[in-house]
Please model this.
Amino acid sequence: MNATMTIIKENKEVISVTTLIVFAMIFFLSAYTVDETEQVVITQFGKVMGNPKIEPGLYFRVPFIQHINKFPKNLQEWDGDPGQIPTLDKTYIWVDTFARWLIVDPVKFFQTVTNINSALGRLDDIIDPAVRNFITSYPLIETVRQTNRKMDTFEMGMDESNERHIGTIKVGREQITEGIQKQAIPKLREFGIELVDVKIKRVNYVEQVRESVYGRMIAERKQIAEKFRSEGQGEARKILGKKERELKLITSVAYKTAQEIMGQADAEAISIYANAYEKDPDFYSFIKTLDNYSTTINKETSLILSTDAEYLKFFKGYSN
Model:
């Protein structure tokens, strides 16, 4: 009797442990978590069950029957393939665009596109035609520029007529991207997608047009450089001419001043000589005669004069 009771008790313990393990496995398989960047759609045999789980927390499902479909809740990026597009003025350019988007209706998203890769394909099908439609509807200047800001010297080629030739924008790049976004939003809403924004990442000429544009840019820059050189040469000539005029003015003023000083000095010298002559005429005559001797007579000079010559009057009566 005691042995039978022991066996029954042991069987109950085994059943209890087994039941606990089964419940633990069921709990583990049925529980799932949703974090801040996720949203979950529960499906059963391909059919959506209940509302999507968009708040972070712990949730439960029927294991093996219900499946968890997780989708990102944060911003997603779409990067378009660069394409060759003609503008309204028949200029072929390469346009590279990108966009950011959100899954705002996970149920509709699951029912229409199922996963992210399919959604990116839908974005390609909708945004690329919208970009082409708007680029071809406007001249190149509308896609390139944002405002009618005044061009700087090098952009204008030193000539305001170039700016008039390029033209002024009426729409601008920002409004073109807004138009692309507005055209694509209703079409993407059918897939539970909200298009947050669309931007043009890069605009470039195609190879053939690029070479022509580069050649024109080189020619314009050479023209600008030549104009700078000619203006510099003109300014240099002006400076040199001004320098010559100022130099001649300074020289003439200095010459005039020097002549005035020399005239004053000569006048003072004559006055001194005259005063000295008046005080002692014989001494003055003697000094002037000696000066005359020093300038007219040297060791190679030969003179034939009579003894009565006035020129030798101061030698008369000289004795050694």
Notes: Residues 129 and 242 are 67 Å apart (CA to CA). Residues 153-165 have pLDDT under 50 and may be disordered. The chain has nine helices and nine strands.
